[in-house]
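User: For this week's homework, look closely at the record that follows, marking any run of repeated tokens, and judge whether sequence predicts the tokens.
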Amino acid sequence: MLKFDKSQYSIIVLIVVTVAFLALAGCGSQYTQSQPSDESGQQVGRSAHQSNAIPANPEVVLPPEPPLDSLAYEYYVNGLLYIGINDIVNASRSFGKAYIRYPDSREISYSYAQTLFSLRKSDSALTILNCTVSRDVDIYKLMARCYHDLKQMDSVRSIYLRLSEMQPRESHNYSVLSSLYRNKGDVDSTVWAYRKLIELSSDNYRIQNDLGRILLGASRREEARAVYKSSLEVNSTSSNIGAVFALAELYAEDQHFDSARTVYEQALVIEPENKMIHHQLIAVLMQADSIDQALVHAQKVVDLAPRDKVAIRRLGVLYYVADSLDRA
């Protein structure tokens, strides 16, 4: 255990007491959003889905807390001191005593619930948090962690829908929601969460590619195609080659061979020696009966890999199909 001389300990106590006083007396200056009058998480979720534009994070001032109780204040300071030496058990006991005397304090309630959660008493923590009238972002996040610990995922989703309304420009909320909805198998809500993420991070091509895969899995091909096109507009370098293959394959499967060919040829401008792109382009050209052009790319693959027996055999087949038996 750390040891302090008398002067050092006095300074530490003074700092903790000052912080505690400011935390308890100054809660009225914190920002939060009033609870929605409708306590149904499902209804809150629907209103979020119906909103397309993402407004700025609202800032609503909490009402000031009731006058301080001196003994509650003393217990609260003791709890902070125990936290300082990592004694969570005694910290929780002190915060619990403070809570009994001053249950309306947001700071005491939050600190008490935090220590209960740390002690794996999520049920007890939720009892405290659900009685807290002035709920801010930190309160809701702690509630979500407690519900997650108890495997109550519907409640976690409801909490993060509230947070997405309180912080509409916080991408983490939508990231969590997208994961929760995806695990639940709710495709529409997953797509909604991903589109919110893309609105906030329009330059993140990886998010768009993830959404493209989700849409493909749901057979929403037109939407997937649009997402992959957008992804390539954001990043058309070799690091985004996966979007090239996905988009071109979508075109080819729908027999839009010219569009598929265009996508592959644009990729070859960036990576002219990428054998996989040449392979895929050969397949598209053969499907479009453009054998002569397929031969050009088949020869390029052999030039890049002269010992590749599969590539040599493919070139021979193409020459045979083109009636060039001597070269075959």
Observations:
- The chain has 17 helices and two strands.
- Strands lie at 31-32, 60-61.
- Residues 27-48 have pLDDT under 50 and may be disordered.
- The longest helix spans residues 6-25.
